[in-house]
TrEMBL record, chains A, B:
The keyword DNA-binding applies. It comes from Salipiger marinus. The keyword DNA-binding applies. Residues 1-70 form the HTH merR-type domain. PANTHER family: HTH-TYPE TRANSCRIPTIONAL REGULATOR ZNTR (PTHR30204:SF92), REDOX-CYCLING DRUG-SENSING TRANSCRIPTIONAL ACTIVATOR SOXR (PTHR30204). Keywords: DNA-binding, Transcription, Transcription regulation. CDD domains: HTH_CadR-PbrR-like. It comes from the Bacteria. This is Cu(I)-responsive transcriptional regulator. Pfam families: MerR (PF00376), MerR-DNA-bind (PF09278). InterPro entries: DNA-bd_dom_put_sf (IPR009061), MerR-type_HTH_dom (IPR000551), MerR_fam (IPR047057), Tscrpt_reg_MerR_DNA-bd (IPR015358). GO terms for molecular function: DNA binding; DNA-binding transcription factor activity.
Amino acid sequence: MLSIGTLAKRTGTKVQTVRYYEQIGLMPEPGRTDGGQRRYGAAELDRLAFIRHSRDLGFPLEAIRELLDLSDSPEKSCAQIDAVAQRQLKAVEARIARLQSLKAELQRMISECHSDRVADCRILEVLRDHEECLSDHKGPDL
Amino acid sequence: MLSIGTLAKRTGTKVQTVRYYEQIGLMPEPGRTDGGQRRYGAAELDRLAFIRHSRDLGFPLEAIRELLDLSDSPEKSCAQIDAVAQRQLKAVEARIARLQSLKAELQRMISECHSDRVADCRILEVLRDHEECLSDHKGPDL
DNA sequence: GCTTGAACCTACAGTTGCTGTAGCTTCTAT
DNA sequence: ATAGAAGCTACAGCAACTGTAGGTTCAAGC
């Protein structure tokens, strides 16, 4: 049996994060010692490792919840799992595209600034007026 | 003089967001009508446009605060402004690198899944075990 | 001048995914 | 037996907004 600290260390998680996952129902309520401390087994270790790895790959917690639910029905088709992964891939690709357009714009404004005084700094000029930009580079979240 | 709604519309901001910027001191407290409604002039319009455009380029609010402060000293050197932009560029590049490694991993696990049953879905297998991955793809925030 | 409805006001809760703190209790090693 | 590390709960805070409730004001049309 593992303490919460050991479980956290083994999975590269913080103790509070483990408790947070329990609070939002992503991790089950574990057994407790007589004194009230949490004790975990191998199944919980695996589940937490799954959660962490999915987070590292950028899956939102709600998607991870879906994946965990789906993996409880081993005989079903894995089409839904595929769909969740595809959705995540699309999200990642969209973010990359957005960031690349930001990168180009930032590089351009930095390279264009040959001034030395704030008064005619190209960076500020570009930030003041979106018309100075080549692309639209707007979007929801980064 | 512009109402908050007009100001928001002209800059592509939400009314609440404008009030939020005021609350955190990024926008100044504007004049008010006798009835207590906010009224804005051209300077505030420009300032908000600057903030929005900077946000669209991914600058955090604290960086924008720096830029606005710096632009109040037109005779100073623009080295600090350059530094803020460079910092943002580095942050964007780091994010792109991270996301590209996630993208590769996601593509790989999706393409490897030829199964039809959840029980032997490659996606779940990879998520269960980080050793299945090619790269480390870990990092702070996306 | 009056009415109506859109737009405004404040204040606060909720979002995502944690992280940090305070004040206390329990466990484990010596 | 005791000390200190690690655990417990509960709550506040981060970024950067967004949404809601319950009330007030503004501006246009008659």
